[in-house]
Amino acid sequence: MNAPDRELIDRFRDAVARRFGLDFDDSRRDFLGEILVKHVARAKSADPFSYIHRLVSGQAPRSETADLATDLTVGETYFFRHPDQFRAFVTAAELDRHPPPGPRRLHILSAGCASGEEAHSLAILLREHVPDGSGWNLRVVGIDLNPVSLARAARGRYTAWSLRGSDETIKQRHFHARDREYQLDDSVRAMVTFEERNLLSDAPDFWRPGAYDVIFCRNVIMYFTPEAARAVVARLTRALVPGGHLFLGPAETLRSVSNDYHLLHTHDTFYYQRRRDTTDALQFPVESRIAREDALFPVLSGADGSWVTAIGEASDRIARLRREMRPVGPAASPASGGPISGDEAPPVPEVARPLDLRTAREMVRQERYADALQVLGVPAGEDRRDPDAQLLRAVILTNCGHVAEAEQLCHDVLSGDELNAEARYLLALCREHAGEFDSATEEDGIAIYLDPRFAMPHLHLGLLRKRAGDRAGAHRAFREAAALLPREDASRVVLFGGGFSREMLLRLCEAELRAREGDS
Questions:
Q1: What confidence tens digit (pLDDT) does each residue in 109-124 have?
Q2: With contact defined as beta carbons under 8 Å apart, do 314 and 294 qualify?
C-alpha cells in the first residue's frame, strides 16, 4: 500500500486506542504510519480500512493482534528500577518486621510487566525477606500485551544491562552467569507466573475482587487515553484488597482518575493505599477536570477573559464542589483540604518546619493548596531565600487569587536570580491581573527568551496579543505553544498550567488556531 495520509493514520490511531487503550500523540504519526503499512501487508488485507475494521470489531485473529501489540509496546526496563519504590513496598508489605508476622497471604500483580524484570525483582525481595517454611502464601503474577516480552520473561535470562540497578550480592545469590548473560535461579522463577493479557479486556475470573494485596502498574497508564486509564485503574481497584497498595510510575498520578485511594509518601516516593471503607472517599465525578473545562469556556468562546481569572474561577468551582460533597462527621478526612477560594485568606502556617517541597508539589498536583501551604510551613533562615520554595508558594497564591503576595515572591526570586524564566512567567500573570498588559507582555517575552521551550509563556502571550487585537502575533504564539505542550515537562505543566491538564491547554491552543484560520 502507499504511504497512509493523515486521516488514515488518525483512524488507525483511534483503533489502537479503542483496542489497547494506548494514546499516541501527533509526534508519533510517522511511527504509526509505518506500523500500519507493515501490518496491513503482513495480514494480507485487501486495504487498510478492512484491517482497521477487523482490529476494532475484534474479528482479527489473536495472533494478529498479538503481533501488533508487540510492535506497539516495546519497552526497556531493568531490575529494581526506581529502588525507592521497592523499599516502600518492603515496608508496606511488612517484610522488614523482625520477626516477620505469622503465616499470611501476599499476592502481587505486576501489570505491564514487559520482559519480567519488575516481577522477578519482587520475587527476589520475597526470597530475601520471607524465610523458607514460614507458611506464607506467596504469589507473583506478571501480565503484559507483548507475547515476545513475556516469552523472554518466562526464560528468566537477562543481560548485564538489565541488572545495572542490582548490587553484586543480589547477582550472586539469585543469578548464574551463562555466556555473558545471567540466568535467574529456578527458586525465583518458580514464584512468578506470566500471562498475556490486555488491561482493557474484562476477565472476571482474573480480576476477581480482592485477588491481590499489592499491585505494581508503573509507567503504564501514562501511555493510555484518559478514558482507558480510568477504566484500567477501576479494574485494578476491584482486584486489590481494601487497604492494599498500588504503585504507579514516578510521573503518574491518580488525580482525575480515581478517588478510591489514600496518597502515601515514604522512602522518598509516592504510592497509594486503597481505602478500607469506600464511604470515606470523596464520591463525586472527576470534578477537577469538569470545573476547569467550564472555566475555559469563556476563553474558548472568544470572550475577553483574563487567564488569571480563569485559573481563579476554576479553583473556586472546585472548592465549592468539595465543600458541597465532602462527607460530614467522622468519615471526613482532616488532611483532604481542597483549594482555597479566591475570597478566603490563605491559611498561614504557625510553625516553622523543614521544607518538604516534594510533598507540597504533589499536593499542588491534587489541588490541595491549603495543605501545600501547611507543608511548606513558615519560611525561616535559609528556607526564606530558597527560590524553589518561593516559586511554589507563588504558584499556590496565584491559583488562590492572592496575586499581590505572589508578585512579591516573584520579585524576591528575581532579586537573587534575574534569569529565572518561571518567575518571569508568574510575574506576567500578576501584571495581567493588575491590568498592566504591556508589562505582562514584556515579562512573557523575557521568559520566552530565557527558556524558549517553556510552553506557558507562549500560551499566555497569545492570549495577551489576542486581547490587544494583534491577530498575527496571537496566531504565532498559540502555534508555538501547541508545538511545545506535548513535550513540556509534566511537573512544569502541573505547577504552571493553572491546574489545567496538558490536554485542556492543547484544546485551548487548537481552538484559537482554528478561530484564526476561519477569520483569514
A1: 999 999 999 999 999 9
A2: yes
User: Is the pLDDT at 206 greater than 70, yes or no?
Assistant: yes
| Domains of the chain, first to last | 6-71 (no CATH), 83-280 (3.40.50.150), 294-519 (1.25.40.10)
Residue 410's pLDDT is what? Answer: 93
Q: Give start and end residues of each alpha helix (H) in 156-277.
A: 168-174, 186-189, 226-239
As a whole number of angstroms, the distance between CA 161 and CA 70 comes to 21
- Asked if the model's pLDDT at residue 332 lies above 50, the reply is no
Helix (H, G, I), strand (E, B) or coil at 342: coil
- Give the best-scoring range by mean pLDDT among 115-129, 296-310, 352-366: 115-129
Q: Where are the beta strands (DSSP E) in 116-174?
A: 137-144, 157-159
The three grid cell numbers given for residue 387, joined into one nine-digit string: 527560590
Give the pairing of strands 137-144 and 192-196.
parallel
pTM for the model stands at 0.52
Q: d(Cα 208, Cα 259) in Å, to the nearest integer?
A: 20
Query: Residue 65 corresponds to which amino acid?
Result: T
- For residue 85, the Cα-to-chain-centroid distance in whole angstroms is 16
Cell triple for 424: 518571569
Residue found by looking up cell 487567564 in the block: 307
Q: What is the pLDDT of residues 360-392, one digit of tens each?
A: 888 887 777 777 877 776 665 555 667 888 888
CA–CA separation, 401 and 346 (whole Å)? 10
d(CA 106, CA 103): 10
> What are residue 111's DSSP bridge partners?
143
Q: Determine the average pLDDT of the residues in 285-289.
A: 39
* Region for 243 from its dihedrals, namely left if φ exceeds 0, alpha if ψ lies in -120 to 50, beta otherwise: left
| Contacting residues for 180 by C-beta, under 8 A, at least 6 apart | 159, 160
Task: Look at the block and give the residue holding cell 524564566.
Answer: 421
Q: Give the number of other CB atoms < 10 A from CB of residue 127.
A: 17
Q: Which residues contact 12 (CB under 8 A, 6 or more apart)?
A: 4, 32, 35, 36, 48, 52
C-alpha cell at 245: 497498595
- CA distances (Å), origin 449, targets 50, 179, 338: 49, 53, 35
